[in-house]
Predict the 3D structure of the following.
Amino acid sequence: MSAANDHVDASVDSTAKDAAPSSGKPVSGRRSRLAMLFATPVGIAAITADLLVILLAVFGPIIWGTRAETNDFDNLDSGPISGHPFGTDKLGRDILARVLVAARLSIGLALSATLIGIVVGVLIGTMANLAGRRLSRVFSTFIGIAVAFPGLLLALFFAVIFGAGPTGAVLALGAAMAPGFARLTQTLSASVVGRDFVSAAKVLGVSRLRVLTRHVVPNIAEPLIVNATLAAGSCLLAFAGLSFLGLGVQLPSYDWGRMLAEGLNAIYTNPMAALGPALAIVLSGLAFNLTGELGAQLAGRRTTRGRRRQRGAADGSDDQRAPGAGGLPAAADTPSSDAVLVVRNLRVSVRTDGGTIEPVRGVDLTVRAGEAVGIVGESGSGKSLTALSIAGLTHEPLEVTADELWFDELDLRSAIGRRGRAQLGTSLSLVFQDPMSSLNPTMRVGDQLAEVATEHQHLSWKNARERAVSRLRDVRIAAPGRRARQLPHEWSGGMRQRAMIGMGLMGEPKLLIADEPTTALDVTVQQQVLELLESTKQQSGAALLLISHDLSVVSSVCDRVVVMYAGRIVEELPTADLEHARHPYTKALLRAVPSMDTPREEPLATIAGRPPDPASLPVGCPFAPRCPRADDRCRVEPALLPVAGRRALGLAACHHPHLDPVSESGVSIVDISKVGAPGIGETR
Amino acid sequence: MSSLEFRDVGVTFGFGPGALRAVDGVNLQVPDGTVVGLVGESGSGKSTLARAAVGLAPLTTGSITVDGTPIPRRGTRPVQMIFQDPVAALDPRMTIGASLGEALAVAGVRGRRDRGRQIGRLLEQVHLDPELAVRPPAALSGGQRQRVALARALAAEPKVMIADEITSALDVSVQGAVLNLIRELRRDLGLSMLFISHNLAVVRYVSDLIAVMYLGRIVEIAPTEQLINDPQHPYTRLLLSTAPRLGATLSAGRLPDGVRDVEPADPHDPPTGCSFHPRCPVGPAVDPGRTDCVTDDPFLSIDERPHRAACLYAGRHSLRKDPA
Ligand SMILES: Nc1ncnc2c1ncn2[C@@H]1O[C@H](COP(=O)(O)OP(=O)(O)OP(=O)(O)O)[C@@H](O)[C@H]1O
Ligand code: SF4
Ligand code: SF4
Ligand SMILES: [Mg+2]
């Protein structure tokens, strides 16, 4: 059975993917982005400049070679005249022609030096990561020392050692550039070498050279190339400098640096003799830098694109308010007095290259005073975004709308004034998965807690500190006075999480939102933090909105569970009824996750396919492609409707919910009107 | 026929006062055709032990052998490993087929045609469509990528497999299929496996034996049912009582006051005697009479006890012992 199930799983996976945008899109997306970049002023300028420089280097000497060597004895050392727009040199040779001809040598030498610098640098840099333990250390030390020397000094030093002349200068500049590239390569490759696929290749027995060429270099090539292009630009300048000093190209050869030096002698009779080569140096340097810039933008775009999804969740410090829903005026009636949070039709959308997607698609939620509600859902189901938008912590590309968004009689949709925000500051507190990113690493923990009280309650610093220490004691930090003076990194993960809860308690919170507060913690520490959340709730009377992917975590603390799938609530039920979930997804989830009592002889029940991508939701019920009960009716997305449960009324968004036969349950369906299940089935 | 054996294995990182004994004298055997589960909290040394077995972490003491032969530090290892992060597991610049092909080439499969056939077979073995071979990893879901990583490890025809938290980054709805696959491969191929996870329910489901690790040492090992139903070491009991269970309230795992909020130990400066003593619910922090826990190393007398649990009082206490 397992094989059959898995096969279904696999095939559904792959077919689902065909429909998903992930398969074909990145390529075309990339291409269009490339095209877009090339259409920018930088792109156009870079490409034109590159083309000119290349053409000049290739064809310059062929076209103007003879002209540059022809002596015009009638016009020695002349300024710009007709026939010689830049004038002539001491031997009557045309300066413009010589500038154009010198391009090949100048650029060629600069590129050779860059090439040497890159090859040597990359070799040393990768060796520092891939060689044996001891050798690596030698390489790293060497790079460290070499990088510490100023590059130009190093170049001069090598130029003297290798002797004056083009070969010497190329070697010198190459050697001077190598340490920088070595350091860059070392840092870049260190991050690649530490990745699991490199470890896997090593364990498989793939040779070191192949690991280097197949796995490491391709994955660091992008930033290396960008840097190389930029370096080539500065190399061109440096080479001109060496030639100018007489350490580079020697007569009768000439490059722009050499010409600059000669031109400078005649600067008063013919300024163009110096300005000509100088202009050439500047322009071609610019071409290199523009190209590098373009490359950097391309590379940069790609990485920011990949990270976008995580933004916002990680950063809890920004309290930029989400724009409230426009249009609809607030409902005339304010929410019933004991509800701390009322959310109606909350939607979060984000505009992407491929159109607008909606990760949260109409969430309704009510949390009453002192109640603990849990939101469960898999990654991408929209649970964190729901929490973030309630707290007003969403960022720019995300757009939040809602028909109603009441927190403690405060309409969060309208642009609230300073006073309102200050009130929100301490009456709604948040705890995130990674407390380290929510704490300032350079500030003492106690001071960070105290700061909340000085800002929002206008306590004096001394009083605020005292309150901070007492809150740390409340969250059961041992020796809170001493601990308050420590920095976050001196605390364990569990302690930092408790500090965040303590910070939330600095005011008098009415609602505590905890987003995966224990996901990064061990079970023993998780128990401590959950116990703390529970006792905090009891002592302060605050309501708790606990978000987790783990049903058992939620069920141990919460009175009510909300299950999200594909941006919607698909089921809402009292924790006590969890075993009798109505929605096929909840049901499947409960059976698919092994518990301490799962029979070990049988295969686990699986859910075929995978959660849908918000960018390409199936038509109708989003669970339909994975649902064993799906039929034609499911082509219309079901609404969240009341369904009778064993103990109380629940809500489910399904055309064919699981309903126990009354005889089997032994309990008659509860009388809806008499059961006051908090927030469930409430129609207002 | 293929068993993996750790003998007195120690791994120390760093030198001098900053040194850290991540793995400290571990003796463990993964018998032929058996799945041994390894549980323990973060930083207890599970991954380090695994990496040592495939030559990615240097041994400071002891030896690791497969069927009596030490593990080579170069070339194809007889032990293959699958890692936690499905994103980092595959080279983003290589297609699925290229990744598998590389492993096959190292394992000595020559010729394009042969390799192509084997790639198809491997993908089918992990229940993936062979057509995925031409796709880049980015086109695959996390669960699919973990299966490819599994297929790549299988390509090397390992004698023993190590799975380090392979489902912890997966969505729960996808995790089940990967766990089923592990059980199926073990049944069909007779794989020996060290299965690491911090999730006790997952480990219980796939393992025949479970080893519990604390601060670099294995404090208890027993057949799965026995360890779950009759744990001997207080730390094992703590893990079991705090493992979240559906429908259980928090109070089930509540600890005595003396140890409720004690922090996990600093691995740089492990406690004396029994390294679990500051947090032990039946140790000196709760029962002041048990001073020997602070001074005596329970590993020294482990052979004298029938349970081979590294606790001086193993078999003589209950977790819910009332202080006073
Ligand atoms: N390369 C390293 N250098 C120094 N210390 C290390 C290194 N790798 C691991 N450690 C340390 O060794 C100890 C054991 O780490 P290990 O990764 O083996 O733990 P783990 O049991 O796998 O934890 P987790 O459950 O978090 O994966 C930790 O204290 C860790 O900080
Ligand atoms: S509406 Fe249809 S497809 Fe959706 S969960 Fe219910 S039965 Fe399944
Ligand atoms: S030796 Fe003592 S402190 Fe250690 S586990 Fe046993 S009872 Fe607890
Ligand atoms: Mg680990």
Remarks:
- The longest helix of chain A spans residues 208-244.
